[in-house]
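Fold these two proteins, one after the other.
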Amino acid sequence: MGIAVPFPDTQPAGYEWLDDEPPFDPARHLQLEAPSEIVMLADLGYDDAEIATKATPVAASSPFRVLSDEGAEILLATARQLRGFVSPANDRIENMLRGACYRSRWLRDLCISQEVSDHLEAVYGIEIAPHPMPLHLGHMNFEPNRIDTAIDKWHHDTLPLDFVLMVTDPADVDGGRFQYFTGTKAEAAELAARGETPPDDRVVTPEFPGPGYAIALHGDMVVHRAGPLATLAERISLVNGYVALDTSVDEQSRSADLISVDDPNALYTEWAKMAAWRSGDRLRRLVDDLPFTDDKDVVIDRLSDAIAEAQAAVEQMRAGEARLEHYGG
């Protein structure tokens, strides 16, 4: 496992660690098993040219086990302790928790676990690292306060890669199922423009055998949601983010969307560090392999490309809040 940006040694203002947490023990708290099926982006209708620029050609996996029974129990207890820190409702989701890895050491160590990252590398088929922005680590979705709305509307994620893990037992919840669309983002946008959502015959609803099971997802490319509840009940899921260590592929994050969602005490510093990591890596590759040439335009283009993401981050931060994208329903 590589590291893109190390997890910070200090917490942002306003965050305190939970008391009396058990230490995270991979030998006791993990029970990693391989998925039985992998769905590719091509299966969803993406063409070779678009796939070639993305982190991985993998779209999604079938559910697979991540946590042992003990690990699942600790995660549920941790989520219940953290429920009081949920963010204000937004246009896409009513009850979610961000920045949880600045509050729970157990959750932090799970989300940056080398064992889990190594396991997901085998699923994605590429070298990955936990997302450089800790706000994307240990994100939790909680049930809404009413049953006439989806827990999380149809959307694609603001980060490239993630897993979605059931914290509560799906067998105890009436509705609230995770679903994904067997089509492209462009198709989902066309449906939304007509006031429609993905039709049932093009929706996959994976069966999670229990708490502690997850599905690996190419979150930026796969349109998905957490559906509405049929009966009000506790329903919690966890999303943990990753990036490809190959910085030549598309960045695939929409950090500007987070301005309306995330704590500014953490967001801007995390965002700047991620942009600096990717641009720094591209600059190092330019140092290593830029050939001698009298074509200054080639040199300018290479240099401009290397620093483009850092420049874009500066411009987006200055521009301010962006609309949180989704496809309705």
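Now the second one:
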Amino acid sequence: MIHILQWNGVIEDRITDPEQLRKLVGEPHEAVVKKSIAQIDSHVRDYLARSPLFFLSTTDRQGWCDVSPRGDEVGFVKVLDDRRLIYPERPGNRRVDSLLNLLDNPRLGMLSIIPGMQEVLRMNGRAHITSQEDLIAAQNFSGKTPQLAVIVEVEECFIHCPRALKTSGVWSYEDWLPKDEHPSVSEMFQAHLAINGMKLK
């Protein structure tokens, strides 16, 4: 059974400036700040070579945000040099939200995952979209060579602590929700179309 809880009270004690926030959470340890680097070193290369999935964060010029998963063969994010990486942009539903955002605002965030590993790799930088055939073909991406790829100039990367994945138990198979209890994607899709006045035949 799904229990729906609603809050009907007034939202108070809103945090509005960095000083308020710091009084509550404190200052980060020096090592937490200095673990961030602005290059793709051998450790970052090794992590990317073992990862089949990352989450891409983009924003358009109005500030509307989007997060989208990108998955392919293990190591599909290729390193071009110690500052740049490239990943394939596979055909999808043609919404291309992330690509349109990158045309508006080239800044992005990437969160790479290795299945079973609690620590994630975070990277931030600037990107541009390319259709350069010889460059894309040279990456030997699996399957059909994509028409488009995204090149990222890495400005910041660091390993993120394991707390979120550890406490969520996301890799604990025995705690996974049984498939017959999964939300119905089909019902959700149809319901959301109906909200917008559309019904599939």
